[in-house]
Design brief:
Layout lengths: L1 E6 L11 H4 L4 H15 L2 E6 L3 H13 L4 E5 L8 H9 L4 E5 L21 E4 L4 H11 L2
Parallel strand pairs: 1-2, 1-3, 3-4, 4-5
Helix pairs in contact: 2-5, 3-4
Bound molecules: 1,3,4-trihydroxy-5-OXO-cyclohexanecarboxylic acid.
């Protein structure tokens, strides 16, 4: 089975982006971790990143079309703004799992609302890259 791992705006800059908050791992490093764990779990990882909201929505629709097991989504700042991503998660039957490197609930108040989270079956936040691995392990149980 395939698991889509969708990454939103600014996550292409991981490694150099605010390392005190997000750490030093790059998105490629995280993809490697997920591929290793995925192999053990019998899951194929389809990892993508876009700075454009509509691409993320199209990929959620694609996850449905190809019958993905789950969508792991770190929507970046769209987490806190995008009703369209919320609707996309509701529009597909593939279960969506929210992922964050940091813990938005301990940061600025504007990060305390998660629209995407309201449409997800689980959330993993505040564990750095390990948030993704925990989310993948949860996807394997679905
Ligand atoms: C983030 C948290 C968001 O609030 C922020 O806008 C990001 C990254 C995280 O992974 O910690 O871009 O999703």
């Amino acid at each position: 089975a395939t698991v889509f791992v969708l990454n939103g705006p600014n996550l292409n800059l991981l490694g150099t982006r605010e390392p005190a908050i997000y750490g030093s791992a790059t998105l490629d490093d995280i993809a490697g971790m997920l591929e290793d764990r995925g192999r053990e779990l019998g899951l194929v990882i389809d990892m993508r990143q876009s700075n454009h909201e509509g691409h993320l929505i199209d990929w959620m629709h694609e996850a449905q079309a190809v019958g993905a097991r789950a969508v792991l989504i770190n929507a970046g700042a769209y987490t806190h703004t995008s009703i369209a991503l919320h609707d996309a998660a509701k529009a597909i039957t593939v279960p969506c799992i929210e992922v964050h490197l940091s813990d938005p609930l301990t940061r600025e108040p504007f990060r305390h609302v998660s629209y995407i989270g309201m449409a997800c079956v689980a959330e993993f936040r505040g564990h750095g890259p390990q948030s993704y691995v925990l989310a993948l392990e949860h996807a394997a149980t679905l």
